[in-house]
Every structure is written in structure tokens, then in C-alpha cells.
Amino acid sequence: MSEDTYGIELTRIAENHYRAAAPSGASIEFGRGEGLMTPVELLLAAVAGCSSIDVDTVTSRHTEPLRFDVSATAKKLDEDGASRLDDVHLDFDLEFPDDEAGRRADSRVEKLVGLSHDKYCTVSRTVEHETGVDFTIRR
Q: Which of 37, 81, 95, 102 is deepest in the core (most CB within 10 A)?
């Protein structure tokens, strides 16, 4: 089993408004309020994005899709005041050109989605497995 380490730095911009920055310099703002995705929405975007990258990487070797849209939904559960998501569902809405390359790309989609779910998508595999989360506080 290989061990890579990932990390982000989070900075408060304003009340309920944050910026997460990756070591690469990429960043995203989120939080609670107009025009901001919530952390839960970011989690769903991460699951959808991870699987989308897996599928897109392989199918794009054959052809460019005409449509590549993925939606992610989940049910929020309340367990004695503690909340979590369940029944995360991805809906892939894909269209490829009606030619040999497009049919070849389309023929791989079902297997690619399955492989992403079962093996390659770090995000969905993390969500599906019990994953430890701990913290430290510095003052």
C-alpha cells in the first residue's frame, strides 16, 4: 500500500466564508451564504469530480464528448443530533459523437464508472470506508 500525503490550508475570509488553498496554488472559496458552495456541496462535488476525471481521462483518448454532465445527490441523516450523508448517488449524462471513436468511448463508460467506484476514486472510496478524522488546536 502506498502512502501519499495530501493537504490544504484553510483561511477565514469573513464570517462563514473560507478559502481552501492547495500546495499547487489552486484555491476555492466556500462557506455559507450567497454564491458560496457549502462544505457538504463540496463533498458531493469531490465525489462527482473524482469519478468524472476517471471516466473522462480514458474516454477522451478516443474522442471529445458532446455532453459530459454528472450530478451528485445524497440524503442527509440526523442521528440523535449528529448529521451525516447517506445514499450518495452519481448520475452520469454523457453523449459521444455517433462515429467509431464515439462508440468506442461510449462502450467503455459502464466499466470505467465501475472501476472508479470500486478502485480508483479516492474520494468515494474514502466516503464508503470508515475513515479516521482527528484534530489538534493551536493557540
A: 102
